[in-house]
Every structure is written in structure tokens, then in C-alpha cells.
């Protein structure tokens, strides 16, 4: 079916753009364009249309007045109409809805938006036309002069035809739910003729849920003998959603007995669409499509209640763009609006499915983070937001940069009032601006102190990497049967100029969240390879060195190439370097990780799975990955002397690993009793303070300068 689209806009440029959009939709669509609304009305007096695209602001008639004039015509009463508005004309939209507008598009309009809205409305309009055409296949041909001679049977036939062709759902069912009658209008929704459906039960025609609902309503009518209250029911016909306003009434015989149920329904699809759009207008920002302040207040009340009732923690983020006014003033409001939409898109893409984002006015946005575990979760999300918002924007072909300041309040810790939480977040946001902008601040002094500490630590990390403040120590790994030192784990240390010696627990989380873990991981790999080469040059034989590799390093860089390049650069012998990965990497197991690990294994690099038992690794992953060692987490080791269950778990892990041709390492070994129990449980190697604390390079020389070293129980 060919679709005829009439476009009315007083600007010739817009007409050309919209006509091009129609042409891009395909040859089955055509556009007729008018710069003058009155001329368009004259055209519609003599010609049909399937869709109207109308600009709101026009000199002769505005969009609402034009639609009202079209609706006054019999031929135009059901034509779907899209109004195009600029900026945030809320009152204009409501006026257009009252006049009979079907949908809206925000100017400037993209071709994707244009096509999606147009095709949806055309499909609904086409369906309505098809239903009307099908039900009018047997028109009544009786002439007025013959009316007085019409017999009773003919009159009955006339009534049946009227019922059949009326655009209302009408059906009757008996007490058992079988259809006694169905008019053509309703039967066409199912693509059938009435005769094909009469006599069949509800369950044969409607889907199970729909049939169950109808049966329950029918039972109420049959038992009470009274009509039901009106209800809305959706029908899907040829993929098009239609909504009907329905009523059920008792069907009685000549004796007044209820013998069935009469159901009628009026198509209210267009009205429902307008109502939903009006509701959407009341609760959403028209420029960005995000929820507005009204909906934010509702969601905050729900969040506060949920946190209090279930002991949860949430956070409110108030985000204000930095120096947005300058862009608005120098580039114009249209450029400012385009920027705000792009910012809104980036925020929407970052928030989780249970989180909530709103635009509350100007260049201010609010975000509710639900199910927060700790403040670090909030820090990470704020960093992501600031990072994404800080990326370049293309505004009218010109690159534009902007930043943001974020204020954070905790729910319910800081307050139980949504208005007060917003006020406190506003104070925190201005504190962020006073701290140099493009950062985030907590309202709570304690939490803000943590956030500022982490921000400072991130800056120190960058400086520490640039100024070579990091070094490695090496913790020995001992074979349980022989007592030989068979491995070393490289452990990073930070010689902080002000805080002194810092261990990984002091800075690795900030490093991971900030993305600096990539640089640190690369540094550790090269430093370990360099140290192996130094021992080789000195003629000192040391066991293999294991380095920890984070999941993020696998995601963000070509990890295997980085490791193999360093092995080649420092001429590291095969088997002298191994990598330790965590179960977290297995949980997000993918083909890329699989290929990277196999590439390492093929080139003589051993793979060890660290902290085994703390995650949820699949045995299939263990079977498929080229791992050579499993390292049992220290939490099991600490309880082994007093827990038979933990001893059984360790023994089971050892049997599993050996079946998969892997060696088993136990970390965190601190007592001789633990050592003995682990050896008895099948652990091949142990690591911990009992067999050796982390050693400096000088201490490694003392240990291995005279050949292979051995640990003797009781002499540590």
C-alpha cells in the first residue's frame, strides 16, 4: 500500500529535509509539501493523506490550529498527525494534544527518529483502514423508496449488517465461553470471518492469559447478572497494538434468564496515545527525554523508603556542567541544546538498570545510584561520569570540550527528605567547583575526606610511575615434599616520598579504578623480566618468578604481546616467568582471554589461578584453560587446623588439580601445623611467612648465590 505523507512547514529548508527523509524510507512512501498551512487545508479538501507532518510555529495557522481544522473535516478526523516543536514548548504540545495531535518530534529531527515515528503511525492507520474496509464488504443497497415494503426478516438483516460494519467490537458468548456471535469488525482483528469463529471457545481464539482474563470477567457477569465496570483491553493485530474500551453485560433470554455475556469495545488507541504522551510530558524533560524534577522527587521518595525498610544504601549525585554558560552565550542556544542532549545520552549509557537519571533544569542533572556497597562504588561511578562527559563533543561540525562538577549525598545517612538531600548535594557540588571543577565531593566530611584522599593518591600514583618510586620484592614458594625453593612471587612496593613504604592494599584499588593498573602492570612485568636477566648475567640460578596480572589488563591491552615482547627483550629463558590470574577473569571468560592465555602457554609462560575458592569458577573453565597451577586462597588455610570441612575442601581441590595436570599452591602458611596438614592434603607447594617473607634483591642473592636453597621445617 502506498503511503501519502503531507508535510506543512513555512521554512523551505525544513521541507526539503523532511521530503528527503520520506524519500529515504522507500518508493512506497511519497511526500507532498506546503509552506502555507491554508494551501495545505485546501489540498486536503480534495485529496487523501495517510500521515501529516506539521511544524508548530507557522504564520497563518499554528500547528494546533491546523490540526483542529483538519479534524473538523470528515475525511481528516482519523489521519495521524506529528507535530514538530523546537526547544521546550510544553504549553504548545499540550495545546496540540487537545487539538488532536498524535505524536511529537523535537527539532532538529534525525532521519532515524523521523522514520521510526512515521512508520509506527502509518502501520496503525493502515490497520484501522483495513478493518473498516473488510467490514464494509457487503454494503446495504436498499433504496429509500423501498423502506416501507421491507419485511421483518429484511429489517433483521439490515440490523445485522449495521452491527457488522460498525467500528466497534461486538461478541456474545454462552455460559460455557463459546462464541454465539461475533461481528465482522472484531473477527477481522484475528484475520478470520465471523463464521469461522462462532461456536469456538475463548481458549481456541485468544492466547492463554487473555482467555483466562476474559473467562474471569464472564464468570462475574454470569454470577451477578450485572454488567462489569468498563476496562481497557489491548489487541495485537498483524503486529499493530490497538487499545479498546470494553464493557461486558448479561445476555438474557425472553424469560430474563442470563444465558451468556455480551462484550462490546470501542477503539481508543489514539486517545490512549495522547493520554500517555500528556503524562510523559508532565514527567519528562522535553529537550533530553530524561525524567524531570517531578519524577525525580517521586523516585527519591521510593528510594528513601526502600533504604530505610530494607537497610540498603543509595546515593544522590547532583551533576552541573562547568562553563556551560560560556558555550550557550558564544555558540547560541541551539548549540547549547545539542550539547545537553549529548551529555544526557552519555549519562543514560553509564547508569545501571536499577539507577535513575534526570535533568532537573538548565545544565543540572541528578542521578540516583541504588544498592551501593561502599563509597568506592560511588567514586568509581563519578570518575566514569567525569571521564565520559570530558570527552570531545561535535556541535555543528565543531569540536567542543566541557567538564562537570558532582556533589554527592548518601541515602539515608545524610537525610530522609528528598528536598534536603538535593540541597545538601547542591552544597557538595559547589564545593567540587571551588576545588577546581571537574571533580566530585561528598557532603559528609568523613566520606569527602576519603574521596579527596583517593583523588590525591591517584595523582601521586601518576607521579610515582613517572619518577620510578616503585620496586619489587619477592616472596619464596617452597615445595612441600623436598623443601626446595621452587618459585618466587613478585610483589610491588611503593616508596612514597611522604607516606613512606606502601603495600599493594594501600593503593591497588585506586590504581584499578583510575585505569593506572595498566601502566603499573606493564611496569611489574618488565621489572620482573629485567631482574631475571640480571640474575642470569650474574650467574645466579633462581626459580621462576610469578607476576600478578589483573583482569583489566587483559581487557585494555594486548597482554600476551606485552609479556612476550619483554621476554624477548631481556632474553628470559622458558619457564622462568609465570603469570597469576584471578577467578574474576574466569567469570568473564571469553574467546579473547582464552586466546591470550594459550599464546602465553605456547611460549613457555606458566599460568597460575590465584585466590582459588573465593569466586565461582566453572570446572569447564579449569578444564579448557591452559593453567598449570591452582593457588588456594588463604582463608581456607587459616582454618585448616580447626575445620575438618576446610581440610576436606583443600584435599578435594588438590585431587581436582592433579586430575587436570596442575600443581597446587597454598598461600598464607604461617605455622608448622598448617604446613604438615597441607602436605598431607596433597598440596605441592606452599607460600607464607613460615617459609619466607618478601625478600629484596639483595636478600635473594644471599639465598641463591651458593646454589639451590632449601627450607627446613623448624628452622625458620
TrEMBL record:
Q: Which residues carry this modification: 4-aspartylphosphate?
A: 55
CDD domains, A to Z = EAL, GGDEF, PAS
Domain PAC intervals? 227-280
**Keyword Phosphoprotein listed:** yes
The question of whether Phosphoprotein is a record keyword is answered with yes
Could you say which residues form the signal peptide? none
One Pfam family named in its UniProt record? Response_reg
Q: Which UniProt keywords apply?
A: Phosphoprotein
* Domain EAL positions: 454-708
Start and end residues of each Response regulatory domain: 4-122
- GGDEF domain boundaries: 312-445
Domain spans labelled PAS: 155-207
| InterPro entries for this protein | Biofilm_reg_signaling, CheY-like_superfamily, EAL_dom, EAL_sf, GGDEF_dom, Nucleotide_cyclase, PAS, PAS-assoc_C
What's this protein's name? Answer: EAL domain-containing protein
The organism encoding this protein is: Sphingorhabdus arenilitoris
Amino acid at each position: 500500500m502506498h503511503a501519502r505523507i503531507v508535510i506543512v512547514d513555512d521554512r523551505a529548508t525544513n521541507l526539503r529535509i523532511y521530503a528527503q527523509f520520506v524519500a529515504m524510507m522507500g518508493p512506497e512512501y511519497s511526500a507532498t509539501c506546503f509552506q502555507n498551512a491554508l494551501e495545505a487545508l485546501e489540498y486536503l479538501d480534495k485529496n487523501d493523506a495517510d500521515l501529516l507532518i506539521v511544524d508548530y510555529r507557522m504564520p497563518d495557522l499554528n500547528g494546533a490550529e491546523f490540526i483542529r481544522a483538519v479534524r473538523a473535516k470528515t475525511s481528516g478526523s482519523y489521519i495521524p498527525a506529528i507535530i514538530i516543536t523546537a526547544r521546550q514548548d510544553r504549553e504548545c504540545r499540550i495545546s496540540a494534544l487537545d487539538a488532536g495531535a498524535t505524536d511529537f518530534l523535537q527539532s532538529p529531527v534525525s532521519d532515524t527518529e523521523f522514520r521510526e515515528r512515521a512508520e509506527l503511525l502509518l502501520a496503525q492507520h493502515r490497520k484501522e483502514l483495513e478493518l473498516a474496509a473488510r467490514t464494509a464488504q457487503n454494503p446495504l443497497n436498499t433504496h429509500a423508496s423501498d423502506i416501507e415494503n421491507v419485511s421483518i426478516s429484511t429489517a433483521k438483516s439490515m440490523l445485522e449488517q449495521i452491527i457488522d460494519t460498525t467500528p466497534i467490537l461486538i461478541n456474545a458468548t454462552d455460559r460455557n465461553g463459546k462464541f454465539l456471535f461475533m461481528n465482522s469488525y472484531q473477527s477481522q482483528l484475528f484475520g478470520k470471518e465471523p463464521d469461522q469463529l462462532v461456536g469456538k471457545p475463548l481458549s481456541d481464539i485468544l492466547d492463554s492469559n487473555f482467555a483466562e482474563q476474559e473467562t474471569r470477567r464472564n464468570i462475574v457477569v454470569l454470577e451477578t447478572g450485572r454488567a462489569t465496570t468498563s476496562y481497557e483491553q489491548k489487541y495485537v493485530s498483524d503486529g499493530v497494538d490497538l487499545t479498546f474500551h470494553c464493557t461486558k453485560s448479561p445476555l438474557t433470554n425472553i424469560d430474563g434468564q442470563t444465558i451468556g455475556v455480551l462484550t462490546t469495545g470501542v477503539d481508543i488507541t489514539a486517545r490512549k496515545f495522547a493520554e500517555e504522551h500528556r503524562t510523559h510530558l508532565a514527567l519528562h524533560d522535553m529537550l533530553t527525554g530524561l525524567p524531570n524534577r517531578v519524577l525525580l522527587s517521586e523516585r527519591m521518595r521510593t528510594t528513601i523508603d526502600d533504604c530505610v525498610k530494607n537497610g540498603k544504601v543509595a546515593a544522590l549525585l547532583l551533576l552541573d556542567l562547568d562553563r556551560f554558560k560560556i558555550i550557550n552565550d558564544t555558540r547560541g542556544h541551539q548549540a547549547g541544546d545539542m550539547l545537553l542532549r549529548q551529555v544526557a545520552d552519555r549519562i543514560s549509557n553509564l547508569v545501571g538498570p536499577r539507577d535513575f537519571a534526570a535533568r532537573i533544569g538548565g545544565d543540572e542533572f541528578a542521578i540516583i545510584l541504588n544498592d551501593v556497597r561502599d563509597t568506592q562504588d560511588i567514586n568509581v561511578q563519578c570518575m566514569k561520569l567525569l571521564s565520559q562527559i570530558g570527552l570531545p563533543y561535535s556541535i555543528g561540525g565543531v569540536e567542543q570540550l566541557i567538564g562537570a562538577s558532582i556533589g554527592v549525598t548518601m541515602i539515608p545517612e545524610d537525610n530522609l527528605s528528598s528536598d534536603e538531600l538535593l540541597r545538601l548535594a547542591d552544597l557538595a557540588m559547589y564545593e567540587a567547583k571551588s576545588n577546581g571543577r571537574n571533580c566530585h565531593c561528598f557532603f559528609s566530611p568523613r566520606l569527602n575526606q576519603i574521596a579527596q584522599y583517593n583523588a590525591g593518591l591517584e595523582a601521586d600514583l601518576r607521579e610515582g610511575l613517572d619518577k620510578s618510586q616503585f620496586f619489587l620484592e619477592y616472596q619464596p614458594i617452597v615445595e612441600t615434599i623436598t623443601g626446595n625453593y621452587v618459585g618466587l612471587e613478585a610483589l610491588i612496593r611503593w616508596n612514597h616520598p611522604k607516606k613512606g613504604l606502601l603495600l599493594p592494599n594501600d593503593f591497588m584499588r585506586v590504581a584499578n579504578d583510575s585505569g593506572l593498573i595498566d601502566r603499573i602492570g606493564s611496569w611489574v612485568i618488565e621489572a620482573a623480566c629485567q631482574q631475571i636477566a640480571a640474575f642470569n648475567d650474574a650467574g645466579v640460578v633462581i626459580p621462576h618468578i610469578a607476576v600478578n596480572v589483573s583482569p583489566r589488563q587483559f581487557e585494555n591491552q594486548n597482554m600476551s604481546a606485552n609479556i612476550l615482547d619483554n621476554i624477548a627483550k631481556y632474553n628470559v629463558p622458558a619457564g622462568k616467568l609465570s603469570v597469576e590470574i584471578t577467578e574474576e577473569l574466569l567469570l568473564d571468560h571469553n574467546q579473547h582471554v582464552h586466546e591470550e592465555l594459550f599464546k602465553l602457554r605456547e611460549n613457555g609462560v606458566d599460568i597460575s589461578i590465584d585466590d582459588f575458592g573465593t569466586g565461582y569458577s566453572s570446572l569447564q573453565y579449569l578444564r579448557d584453560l591452559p593453567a598449570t597451577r591452582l593457588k588456594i586462597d588463604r582463608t581456607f588455610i587459616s582454618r585448616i587446623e580447626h575445620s575438618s570441612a576446610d581440610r576436606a575442601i583443600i584435599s578435594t581441590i588438590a585431587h581436582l588439580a592433579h586430575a587436570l595436570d596442575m600443581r597446587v599452591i597454598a598461600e598464607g602458611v604461617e605455622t608448622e601445623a598448617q604446613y604438615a596438614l597441607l602436605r598431607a592434603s596433597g598440596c605441592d607447594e606452599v607460600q607464607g611467612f613460615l617459609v619466607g617473607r618478601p625478600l629484596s634483591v639483595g636478600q635473594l642473592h644471599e639465598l641463591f648465590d651458593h646454589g639451590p636453597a632449601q627450607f627446613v621445617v623448624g628452622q625458620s
